Amino acid sequence: MTDLLTVQNLKVSYPTRTGVIEAVRGVSFTLGKERLGIVGESGSGKSQTGRAIMGLTPKHGIVSADKLDFNGIDLLAASAKQRRRLRGKRIAMVLQDPKYSLDPVMSIGRQICETLRTHENVGKAEARDRALAMLEAVQIRDPKRVFDLYPHEVSGGMGQRAMIAMMLIADPELLIADEPTSALDVTVQLDVLRIMDRLVSERGMGLIFVSHDLRLVSSFCDRVIVMYAGKVVEELKASELKNARHPYTQGLLNCMPQIGESRHPLPVLDRKPEWAA
């Protein structure tokens, strides 16, 4: 399997008045046309890793890596103009909550068409037809009606589907999904995951699925990277996550609720200083 993305020794830091905050510390992994899960607690560096790949790290942040290569393109050496051409066209990112990701003063259809016309030379009529087809592909029942709605007029699940449609409209090769189901009901979560799974399989894309839900990642992804304090502490097949060896991963698994089992008091993760070393 040819690697679509290669990340070697990725670091993201933020200078502050009290010192430098190291958000990502030497993360390395490769990605082919597969589903890679990145899990860990809040603040472990999952989202910062995804944003660094996208080129969306804030200006005061410092990004470095021995290698950050996307399909033969050196992302660190790429100019701002090259990065803008890649974003949305070849690399796309679905963010956590559509309420904060979608423009509140633009209709959903207009936002999807804008994404397509930014990267492809198509007319308004063709852009509308392709946007409607994409809304139908993410299982929105009445795409013509939703096309003209504004983000505040749709539910969270429908807003997330619209966001996925907007990110996939230009046929990207790599999709980064940053906790795309965390703000959704359980039944809606399953619908969104099924949509993403089908589209990724049909289009032969690479997927980075960022989440804190180990059970979800173990059933949805092919491989899993576990992050703690900005570092990768373990990497294994998703199907073997329950057999994880690192005590941090074992602690996260132990904290998950167990059906039919009384757990009082609830287990608490006992963090060790050496995990962050």
Radius of gyration: 19 Å
Structural class of the secondary elements?
alpha/beta
Mean pLDDT: 89
Globally, the shape reads: globular
What about the largest sheet?
6 strands, mixed
What portion of residues is helical? 25-40%
Number of discrete helical segments: 10
Number of strands: 11
Please state the oligomeric state of the protein chains shown.
single chain
Distance between the termini: 33 Å
Give helix and strand order, one letter per element, not per position: EEEHEEEHEHHHHHEHEHEEH
Instruction: Determine the CATH topology of the largest domain.
Output: Rossmann fold
Q: How many discrete structural domains?
A: 2
Would you identify the CATH architecture of the largest domain?
A: 3-Layer(aba) Sandwich
Strand content: 15-25%
The H-level CATH homologous superfamily of the largest domain, spelled out, is: P-loop containing nucleotide triphosphate hydrolases
Low-confidence stretches: none
Strand order of the largest sheet: 7-8-9-3-10-11
Main features:
35% helix, 24% strand, 6-stranded mixed β-sheet, Rossmann fold, alpha/beta, 10 helices, 277 residues, single chain, 2 domains, 5-stranded antiparallel β-sheet, 11 strands
Summarize the structure.
This protein has helices spanning 46-54, 80-86, 98-101, 108-119, 124-137, 143-147, 156-168, 186-203, 214-220, 247-254; strands at residues 5-16, 19-31, 35-39, 62-64, 67-70, 73-74, 91-94, 174-178, 206-211, 223-228, 231-237. By secondary structure, it is an alpha/beta fold.
